[in-house]
Every structure is written in structure tokens, then in C-alpha cells.
Amino acid sequence: MDNAAVIVFDINSVSVLFVRSVVVQKRVL
């Protein structure tokens, strides 16, 4: 894999985790 592809994959993973955490917080509230 190219470094660029790995960086993009990491960004996508972080964004997905961030969205999940926000959704969980909204459900709790």
C-alpha cells in the first residue's frame, strides 16, 4: 500500500470513530 492510501484510510477510520462517538453521546442525552 502507498503511504498516501494508508493516511487516507487512517483519516477515514478516525472520522468514523468520531461520528460514532457523537451519535452515542446524542443517544445518551
UniProtKB/TrEMBL annotation:
This is Uncharacterized protein. It comes from Phytophthora cactorum.
